[in-house]
Amino acid sequence: METRELAGAAIAFDEDGHMANRQEWNENVALALAKEEGIDELNDRHWIVLNFMRKVFDEMGDAPSIRKLTKESGVNTKELYQLFPKGPAKKAAKIAGLPKPKGCI
Amino acid sequence: MKNLVILGAGTAGTMMLNKMDAMLDSSQWQITIVDQFETHYYQPGFLFIPFGIYSRKDVIKPKRDFFPSGTNVVMSEIDRIEPEQNRVLLKNNVVLNYDLLIVATGAKVAPGEIEGMQEDLWYKNIFDFYTIEGACALGEFFRHWEGGKLVLNVAEMPIKCPVAPLEFVFLADWWFTEQGIRDKVDIHYVTPLPGAFTKPRASGILGDFLDLKNIHLTSEFNISRVDNEEKKIVSWDETEVPFDVLVTIPTNMGDAAIERSGMGDELNFIPTDKHTLQSEAHENIFVIGDATNLPSSKAGSVAHFQADILAENLMSFIEGRPLRGKFDGHANCFIESGFGKGILIDFNYDTEPLPGKFPLPGVGPFSLLEETEMNHYGKIMFRWMYWNFLLRGKELPIESHMSMAGKRM
Predict the structure, then answer these.
(1) Is A65 on the interface with B (CB under 8 A)?
(2) For the domain with range B111-252, which CATH number is right: 3.50.50.60, 3.40.710.10, 3.40.50.300, 3.40.50.1220?
(3) How many whole angstroms from its chain centre is CA B312?
(4) How confident is residue A103, by pLDDT bands cut at 50, 70 and 90?
């Protein structure tokens, strides 16, 4: 567990480098996290994915896999990789302030 | 009379059958096992077939050789499970009612999940080795191949036996050296993971072995399609890797019957309690081996460690006691590394593979995360242990829970 300053607030992170407390998350924190992942701005399409991630996490207690994103978020695989290069499921979970998806081993 | 039904007579199902047959009172319980195929394949042996070390006959035995007498055996494909009715519908129109159900339907490769995989080049220049057909076809291809670009690609995680793709490229390095054409073969390991393996310390050490053996590594490559005309694989972010022969580890999925039953996740794996092995949705359904969605490796050794825990929990469940058996994610893998040597790793949910020694009464110790001849013999010996001890549900001298003895932090 480490704490560092992000978007003007002290934010706690878990051992995977994901946020430890969801209540510390807000849109500014999300933008700062995105920049750390090399994504300079978050547009409407990013937010569709991020909001979907948060909704699934609230319902299921785990962030969705890439397959669930493709099937249900309204954004296809190709675009997911454009929005969140390399690992969409893992990156989007990180930016959404959620723990690393359990399926990500 | 109560009914215990086991779906699947692979490694996990057969072990559970033997354990429960020994533990349950046969005047009170009838055990039924369901499978659609008569032949048991020793899947860890598929790795050796492309290099001519094993042939088909070395990895097959009749499933029935491993069933205790008195077992009700039903050979049929499963249509679906109806968990609310406590029954299983089979494709041969038989209906099986159960009091207790063990699902051991496993995982298999689904090459059709990737665009272009099963088109013109399938089994001509593109092969898998996770099926007997693929492993034999690749062996045939290698016997006549004169060299070029050999690409191994892992499509997506999770896969059965996450070390097998690494073992494949290590063995390829050795085999093409033996054939005298290693200088003409460019070996390239292409994976969606950030490194050579799923766990950080082992990933670093195994990555060094790739370097030593002159095997190229491309990480974070998520395949979107195969271009059959230009012989290349293309990732979702348009990175391209050309090949002359592509060895694919396709997407691994749970059985289609799980999807028909509405019991699986996106890959047809069943949400299962990672410690007790009880299905999350139904208290009289337990799941073992590759069929689960557990964050442990999908491997026979893992199913073996789970089997001891599951047998204990099933007896507790039957007697109305709390489920005390807690699976810890223990996996133990001999990694064949070529030139008569092997590497051993031993880990669980919380402890990643560490270097050190692995004590084993009478035989060991084996070295962890180091290349030794002893580890190679461990691997070779394992096939005999598998047929004679493991499948028959007999005790092996390895604890179900991981031990820290000998490991270096």
Answers:
(1) yes
(2) 3.50.50.60
(3) 23
(4) low
Which 8-state DSSP code applies to residue A23? Answer: G
Identify the pLDDT of residue B129. 98
Residue pLDDT, tens place only, A7-52: 888 999 998 899 999 899 999 999 999 999 999 999 999 999 999 9
**Is A81 a catalytic site residue?**
no
Burial of B141 (0-12, 13-18, 19+ CB in 10 A): middle
- Token duo for residue B65: 């050789």
Distance CA A9, CA A5 (A): 5
Where do the structural domains in chain B lie, given as residue ranges?
Answer: 2-106+255-318, 111-252, 331-390
pLDDT at A104: 56
Q: Which of the residues in chain B have pLDDT under 70?
A: none
The count of structural domains within chain A is: 1
Q: Are A49 and A83 in contact (CB under 8 A)?
A: yes
Residues of chain A in contact with residue B157, where contact means CB-CB under 8 angstroms, are: 103-105
Is A101 within a domain? Answer: no
**SS3 at position A97:** coil
What's the pLDDT tens digit per position in B53-65?
999 999 999 999 9
Confirm or reject contact between B295 and chain A (CB < 8 A).
Answer: yes
Q: What ipTM does the predicted assembly reach?
A: 0.81
Length in residues, chain B? 409
Q: Which chain A residues touch B222 with a CB distance below 8 Å?
A: 81, 86-87
CA distance B192 to B249: 11
The pLDDT, as a whole number, for residue A86 is 83
Residue in chain B lying closest to A68 (CA): B266
Q: Answer whether residue A74 is part of any domain.
A: yes
CATH no. of B2-106+255-318: 3.50.50.60
Handedness of CA B256, B286, B299, B225 (dihedral sign): positive
Instruction: Tell me the β-bridge partners of A95.
Output: none
The minimum CA-CA distance between B222 and chain A, rounded to whole Å, is: 8
CB contact under 8 A, B236 and A103: no
pLDDT attached to residue B232 = 98
